[in-house]
UniProtKB/TrEMBL annotation:
Keyword S-adenosyl-L-methionine: no
Protein name: Signal peptidase complex subunit 1
Summary of the function given for this chain in its UniProt record: Component of the signal peptidase complex (SPC) which catalyzes the cleavage of N-terminal signal sequences from nascent proteins as they are translocated into the lumen of the endoplasmic reticulum. Dispensable for SPC enzymatic activity.
Taxonomic superkingdom: Eukaryota
Gene Ontology cellular component terms for the protein in this record: signal peptidase complex
Subunit and partners: Component of the signal peptidase complex paralog A (SPC-A) composed of a catalytic subunit SEC11A and three accessory subunits SPCS1, SPCS2 and SPCS3. Component of the signal peptidase complex paralog C (SPC-C) composed of a catalytic subunit SEC11C and three accessory subunits SPCS1, SPCS2 and SPCS3. Within the complex, interacts with SPCS2 and SPCS3. The complex induces a local thinning of the ER membrane which is used to measure the length of the signal peptide (SP) h-region of protein substrates. This ensures the selectivity of the complex towards h-regions shorter than 18-20 amino acids.
Subcellular location: Endoplasmic reticulum membrane
Family membership noted in the UniProt record: Belongs to the SPCS1 family.
Gene symbol of the encoding locus: SPCS1
Length: 102
């Protein structure tokens, strides 16, 4: 059963995160505007809240799961550099000779 959940991709690249944030904010802004105008016209604040909550639910469905459109630009990681026995314990700064001030 757990192997089924491990096969679901759960990552999102940086550009996908930015896109998801922009979509989320856009939907919230549009639903808040529509809700405010509609609530003002019919003079019911409850409808404003319902419309904003519906916009929030829609934006969560569109932005929280890692949809494939958020995984179009994967990061290219640098290859692993194999360490040698003597060099791995020292930091690069320690290997340089320190200059003595006169």
């Amino acid at each position: 059963m757990l192997s089924m959940f491990k096969s679901i991709p759960s990552h999102m690249d940086y550009k996908g995160q930015k896109l998801a944030e922009q979509i989320f904010q856009g939907i919230i802004l549009i639903s808040a505007t529509i809700g405010f105008v509609y609530g003002l016209i019919i003079e019911q604040f409850g409808w404003t809240v319902y419309i904003v909550m519906a916009g929030f639910a829609v934006s969560c469905v569109l932005t929280l799961p890692p949809w494939p459109m958020y995984r179009n630009n994967p990061l290219s990681w640098q290859p692993i550099i194999p360490e040698t026995c003597g060099e791995s314990s020292q930091k690069p700064q320690e290997t340089l000779k320190k200059k003595k001030h006169k």
